[in-house]
Amino acid sequence: MKKILSFIVLSCAVLSAYGSALVNVYGRQYRLLNGRWDAIVDLYDQGGRMKVYENRQPEGETDFYEYAFDGGLRLEVPGDWNSQNPELKYYEGTVWYGRHFDAEPQQGKREILYFGAVSYRCNVYLNGRFIGSHEGGFTPFEIDVTDDLKRGDNFLVVEVNNRRTKDAIPALAFDWWNYGGITRDVMLVTVPDNYVHDYKVQLDKHKPDLINIEVKMSEPVAGQSVKVEIPGLKKRFEAVTDENGEVQGAMNVKNLKRWAPDAPVLYDVTVTGGDDRVEERIGFRNIEVDGTRILINGEPRFMRCISFHEEIPQRMGRAFSKADATMLLSEARDLGVNMIRLAHYPQNEYTVRMAEEMGILLWQEIPIWQGIDFTDAGTLEKAKGMLTEMISRDRNRCAVGFWGVANETKPGEARDAFLRELLSTGRAIDTTRLYVAAFDLVEFDRDRKVFSMNDPFTENLDVVAVNKYMGWYHPWPLSPEKAVWDVNPDKPLIISEFGGEALYGQSGSEDIVSSWSEDYQARLYRDNIEMFSHIPNLAGVSPWILFDFRSPFRFHPVNQEGWNRKGLVSDRGQRKKAWYLMRDYYKSKRDAEK
Ligand code: GCU
Question: What distance in angstroms lies between residue 440's CA and the mean position of ligand 1's atoms?
Fold first, then answer.
């Protein structure tokens, strides 16, 4: 029998393991439960047996408990535990978080406990009772706690575990730090008994003047009045719900200013349903493929892209706040990008919304990253759940132009079937974005003297992306100006990763890879930029990566010290020589589109 993990992810009627959480929580009435929480580090997973979530206090003369939340370790929420305590830097296991909070449940209202993300899996307990669980470190989930809340003091416990497992996503070994903890906002959202749970207000995939509308109320009640108002367009849509509590419709609009990279137009939108009212700013744009070109609002655009992990290198911790988003996005902006690949997992909502305000297109993906067990049915369900949660959260975010379903997977019957399932899951929810996956399968064909790839699965994608480290993992088989590509010639191709490592400030021969020098990295970038001009269907490039980032298997004691040094910017924010080459290249690409 499969070894049952001592940390059990309990299924529970209250919370479906996967499904869409409340959309647009920041546009609702909410109270943050962020701050310093009490914590118990439970390396041997004994807390469940000891029922620490009951938070019992000794009574009488003979009572005692070998735990207490009060008086011990305290951890900031949101935030990973690794960067908050030196002893937790490498910690992989269970941490019990606990905190008190007061509640005043109101008649006719529901209280929804919402987590932006918990890495990697968790069980949630309120006032000593298990109320729900979730697996997946990068997507939100919610629990309706209306019937569990007490008037006055409540005690909330979250049992968090970040142990890597073969059936997890990502699985046992991945090239980023395994941060654990309650890593994004926690909030109590107050909504009416029947509230607007989900909605889509989206420009039609192809039409420039048709806005499609879907609103889903929390209760399957017919006859509820629903309104969607866009004052900036002088438009109001009104309808009543069907027996499922849902409304579908559309409205033609005039004089719409469509959102575009470098021209981010957003409109105030109000969605009301019954007694509920949700507000936010939404942009409207078209993104589609025309042969080998990517069109934004009908115009071909070259994707001047960069990747970054959800990490602030200076504090060696996971990014989670507006300030973190500002740092990452402004550094990307200075490079001259019009797109960011949020590697390799959905990142926090501050980053997504701020990119939208700044006019930066986004590629978001779920962490199907090497080493996934494609034969495991449970893993497929988890992947579908993560994809659903990612799309549901950001479906109204016009900045998101691409959904990525995999990174560097190998062809095979199980992999193909798994990814086809993922694509049909995604396309059942959202057909307005381009579906993409990144592959590291391009080889140099010595007979034909071209770079080619053989992975029939790519035909299922709108855009094909290739990670290719010419000059780093792969020596040049011929000079870069002769490096012609013949990869999916009828589809847009994005070079989603290229680059090499350099230790900031280290100089050396531009001919020697192991110099780990800025000189070699700059030469590598010059060579790759030359090669790009010989890829006929190239629709975009994305250097790997904006910042040096933490990785447990980058061992070199001088050049790496647990850092992957492919950043264009060092972990201390210093721009390497290659940064300037990319900035100039992107400026030339942008000028060519004027
Ligand atoms: C891979 C992978 C990245 C990794 C990079 C590297 O392409 O997608 O996540 O960090 O290579 O080896 O640096």
Answer: 10
